[in-house]
Amino acid sequence: MARAVSRNAKIGWTIAAWSVALIIFFPILYTIITSLKTEQEAISGFNLIPSFSLSSYEAVQSQNNYWRPFSNSVVIAVGSTLLALIVAIPAAWAMAFSPTKRTKDILMWMLSTKMMPAVAVLVPIYLIFLRTGLMDTRTGLVIVLMLMNLPIVVWMLYTYFREIPGEILEAARMDGASLRDEILYVLTPMAVPGIASTLLLNIILAWNEAFWTIQLTTTNAAPLSAFIASFSSPQGLFWAKLSAASTMAIAPILILGWFSQKQLVRGLTFGAVK
Amino acid sequence: MATRQTASLARLMRAPAIILLLIWMVIPLGMTLYYSFLNYNLLNPSVTSWAGWFNYQYFYTDPAFLESIWNTIVLVLGVLLITVCGGIGIAMLIDKPIFGQGIVRILVISPFFVMPPVAALIWKNMIMHPSYGVFADIAKFFGASPVDWFAQFPLLSIIIIVAWQWLPFATLILLTALQSLDGEQMEAAEMDGAPAISRFIHLVLPHMARAITVVILIQTIFLLGIYAEILVTTNGGPGFASTNLTFLIYRAARLNFDIGGAAAGGIIAVILANIVAIFLMRAVGRNLD
Amino acid sequence: MGQITLEEVAKRFGEVEVIPPLDLTIEDGEFVVFVGPSGCGKSTLLRLIAGLEDVSGGRILIDGTDATDASPAKRGLAMVFQSYALYPHMSVRKNIAFPMRMAGLSKDEQDRRIEAAAKALNLTNYLDRRPGQLSGGQRQRVAIGRAIVREPSAFLFDEPLSNLDAALRVGMRLEISELHNRLKTTMIYVTHDQVEAMTMADKIVVLQAGRIEQVGSPLDLYLRPRNVFVAGFIGSPRMNLFSGPTAAEYGAETIGVRPEHIAISAEGGKWKGRIGVSEHLGSDSFFYVEETGLTETITVRSDGELGFRHGDTVWLTPNEERIHRFDKTGDRIA
Predict the structure, then answer these.
(1) Domains of chain B, with CATH numbers?
(2) Which chains lie within 8 Å of chain B at 3 or more CB pairs, if any?
(3) How far away is chain B from the Cα of A268, in angstroms, using its nearest Cα?
(4) Residue C149 distance to chain A (closest CA, Å)
(5) Is residue B2 over pLDDT 70?
(6) Alpha-carbon distance A148 to A122, whole Å?
(7) What confidence category does residue A236 fall into, taking pLDDT thresholds of 50, 70 and 90?
(8) In terms of Cα–Cα distance, which of A56, A74, A55 is closest to A225?
(9) Whole-angstrom Cα distance, residue C73 to residue C152?
(10) What is the DSSP string of A21-67?
(11) Spatial separation of the C-alpha atoms in residues C66 and C204, rounded to whole Å
């Protein structure tokens, strides 16, 4: 709207919006603040100014072997996403560029697998993992999270690929491009942004997954979600350390998340809201 | 001709994804169905026998089952109510001309990126803890006695935590919908003399109806599966006061080693999720063309 | 060379016959325009020639060789699309170079042709920009540039001007005509705008429902429309068509008189009427005359300085020699 908004109204709305935003963000902010406190400070009442002590971070890293779950998280999130992309890119590609009468049905069916509650297959997956030795391995989790996110990956890629106008592919054909040239010089460069967004969102989803990671790991392959969950009953003095561990667990994904707001809407609504 | 060649290539490209998902869907679900008719306990696997409908009957007559179904419904509806109403309000607020809109957006959506165990622990220890939490500090400041949230209001506490996690999602989607509202349409309504309230009711809400539906349906799918938040905070208690269906099945499978019972519960969960899924698929399917 | 011959070419999508078998020859160097209302099959016909759609029957010959099953790349044609279809991730230079890169031309030759095309199309200063940074008219010129450098045996244009605003459209129309004068290459141009067809074409092909209604020079179509459809479609403002007793008087089912072939007078004439809307363009005036006792509103085109206004009573007289007569099936009565 081109109309000038009165300055006072703008200031009023700004204050309101910022207040709400800060309240919503407060638990995260307070966790970050607490992580910079000493354990003593952390339990001695409300205080927004920490002593900026990094001792909790040091303690978490040395005592709790923090880097193991961290590297597990990285391997599982990135691994399952890459694997899903390898399977999904050709599928989404085919469905977007040479659709058949059944394409829509296939997509809907894929979506329906996402509706299956994880807990419904807890028993068989758990038993299969126990019997095949996949229990508490990164490989096992990579496979399960890949399968879990595959429908979302296919869907996201499909909606992105479909936005590449057909006329451009036809133009390439007219310009003398072979199928290989078409894929290499025209389609791929145009598809890269969509693939990158899909990658980003799915790393976030896999990183934050907290059902299978808790069910299917104990110590060796436990990623951060399972690691943090094991702190469910910290004894009184662990406030600052828990905050430090939490901050480290969410910081990378929080930053990735900020970059992928738009893709989030698209990915999680299966393109139903753009 | 080129167009015909690509058709068979396309089939080859689709196959891996379809086959993988087919396996992922059919085999475990089939096993769950099979187990649900077995007397099968991991503590005593040698006495496995055919159980018929026993597991279902057992699950159904167990008071914990009805309580967990009720808790599931309250949890889902409570979170939906907070996130949808809150989401509409916050989305409209962010959509107003404000300073630092980008940062406000980032702050508001942040909780969504916090993994469930961390979110639950933050609320449990930093915010709701009866002696060290911020709520307790606020209560003390006003001279009131602090509330022991997870003991006194276990389900409500979990609803608050989960709502906090999902409010950003609702806000973001509703904001996206709001921003696609045709400015000229609003101006036309203004020219026609429609006051702000009726513009909201007759233009904004109908425009967002689709997004609201999508938010409700997608959240429901995820909310039916809430697990880590309960595990980390109340562990389902006190008693079964904060146990939902997912958590009950987890208990049966992992704590009681009752494979048959857990499988029967899983099938019930599938039926519940499918009821929601049918509506979601319709909403999404309409958008495909 | 760029002679294109269609023999019994047909296209069906499933059960629907979009183009019944048709024959057409496009001579080398001709500027041919396919014109017709939307959905008449003109774009499909162009895409069949391009090879972007497979024919359901018949043969397509390019310079005498059968190209029916040849891939688009092998036909030696260049196409300019309605949406321009520029590659968004490539600079203008790379866009124009793309077909030459595909053809494996030497770098020097590529540069030489790019420079020449850019100069001819006023794109020299924009060669390093991305398509997204260009205006509609500039994008259009890039698309044309990309087509030119291939030195194709024929250019295919698919409604290339429909995304431009009116002023730009006139300019680009001239540029394309100039391009044709300079290159003397066969051009096939699809449009729904009969003004574009009339102004640019050597030969117009009027299509309706996949059938060719008439093929001829613009003046041919204007002077001797073969049937009612062509009569109504070609010419602006549209020809006045009368049926019933008015037509019967001339021994026809329908008669047509173009607006410029009706004299208007305040004193007297054949039909009396009252002016409804009058449009004064300066060079011409258009009058929409009502209450003539005939069912149709009559459009009259006359001298720009004629000052009739809304509500004036006028008399109209058609030029008897310019009356087109059509029979029951809509065909012209010679």
Answers:
(1) 21-285 (1.10.3720.10)
(2) A, C
(3) 8
(4) 10
(5) no
(6) 13
(7) very low
(8) A74
(9) 11
(10) HHHHHHHHHHHHHHHTS-HHHHTSS--S------HHHHHHHHHS-TH
(11) 24
Task: Give residues 39 to 98 of A whose Cβ lies within 8 Å of B.
Answer: 42-43, 45-46, 87-88, 90-91, 93-95, 97-98
Provide the 10 A C-beta neighbour count for residue C241: 17
Cβ count near C265 (within 10 Å)? 13
Residue A234 or residue A190, greater confidence: A190
Q: Which of A194-198, B80-84, C28-32, C184-188 comes out lowest in average pLDDT?
A: A194-198
pLDDT-derived band at B289 (thresholds 50, 70, 90) equals very low
Does C21 reach chain A within 8 Å, measured CB to CB? no
Nearest chain B residue to A4, by CA: B97
Average pLDDT of chain C to the nearest whole number: 89
Q: How far is A73 from chain B, CA to nearest CA, in Å?
A: 12
Residue C48 host element (H or E): helix C42-50
Q: Which of A148-152, B59-63, C191-195 has the lowest mean pLDDT?
A: B59-63
B103 CB-near residues (< 8 Å, 6+ apart): A21
Distance from C-alpha of C321 to C-alpha of A139, rounded to nearest angstrom: 89
Alpha-carbon distance A198 to A91, whole Å? 14
CB-CB contact of B288 with A104 (8 Å): yes
Q: Which residue of C has its CA nearest to A167?
A: C85
Q: Where in chain A is the domain with CATH 1.10.3720.10?
A: 71-230
C76 in contact with chain A, both atoms CB, cutoff 8 A: no
pLDDT score for B1: 38
Q: Cβ A21–B107 below 8 Å, yes or no?
A: yes
Task: Please state, for a pLDDT cut of 70, what percent of chain B lies above it.
Answer: 95
Q: d(Cα C36, Cα C25) in Å, to the nearest integer? A: 18
Specify the range with the lowest mean pLDDT, choosing from B128-137, B155-164, C156-165. Answer: B128-137
In chain A, which residues have their Cβ closer than 8 Å to the Cβ of C71?
A: 173
pLDDT at B238: 84
Cβ of C78 under 8 Å from any chain A Cβ? Answer: yes
Instruction: Check residues A261 and B211 and name the one with the higher pLDDT.
Output: B211
Contacts of B1 in chain C (CB under 8 A): 54, 69, 71
Residue B2: list chain C partners with CB under 8 A.
Answer: 71
pLDDT at res. B202: 80
Sheet holding C254-257, edge to edge: C240-243, C254-257, C324-326
Class of domain A71-230: mainly alpha
Of the ranges A15-19, A180-184, C325-329, which one carries the lowest mean pLDDT score? A180-184
d(CA A209, CA A79): 14
Beta bridge partners, C91, equal none
pLDDT band at residue B161 using 50, 70 and 90 as cut-offs: very high
Long-range contacts of C291-298 (CB under 8 A, 24+ apart): C292/C316, C294/C242, C294/C246, C295/C244, C296/C240, C296/C241, C296/C242, C298/C240, C298/C262, C298/C271, C298/C273
Q: Which amino acid is at C141?
A: R
Strands (E), C16-74: 16-26, 31-35, 57-62, 65-66
Give residue C261's pLDDT band: very low, low, confident or very high (50, 70, 90).
very high
Is the pLDDT at A146 greater than 90, yes or no?
yes
Chain A CB contacts of C85 below 8 Å: 165, 167-168, 170-171
Phi-psi label, residue A49: left if phi above 0, alpha if psi -120 to 50, beta otherwise = beta
Question: For chain A, what is the mean pLDDT?
Answer: 83
Identify all chain C residues contacting A176, using CB atoms and an 8 Å cutoff: 73, 99, 102-103, 150
Which of A93, A204, A258 has its CB closest to that of B106? A258
Mean pLDDT of chain B: 83
All domains of chain C in start order, with CATH: 4-230 (3.40.50.300), 238-326 (2.40.50.140)
How many other CB atoms are found less than 10 A from the CB of residue B140? 14
